[in-house]
Amino acid sequence: MSEYRAIYKCRLCGEEFYNAGTSDEDTASKVTMYTVLESSGITPQFESRNAPIQFDLHNCKDGSYGMADFQGMKKVGDSDG
Fold it and tell me: CA distances (Å), 17 to each of 44, 53, 62, 73, in order?
């Protein structure tokens, strides 16, 4: 089964990580668009309390704290089960 993960990339150290996911393709596409539109100041009709946020805090391996940007919903796993 496939999963879509909310991917973030730290501006400070460059590490990519995820903090949320869904197995529903429609939800993954809608929350990606919602997050992009919201960051542009547009309020889309689709709203979800569970949608990824545009930025996240990252605790880097060296102990630093960086700002991470939402990259999108990455599909992982086997699509045919």
Answer: 26, 14, 16, 11
Contact present, 15 and 71 (Cβ < 8 Å): no
Of 69, 63, 54, 53, nearest in space to 14 by CA: 69
Residue-wise pLDDT tens digits, 55-80: 899 999 999 999 999 999 999 987 55
DSSP string, the chain: --EEEEEEEETTT--EEEEEEES-HHHHHHHHHHHHHHHTT---S---TTSPPSEEEEE-TTS-EEEEEEEEEEEES-TT-
Look up residue 17 and give its amino acid: F
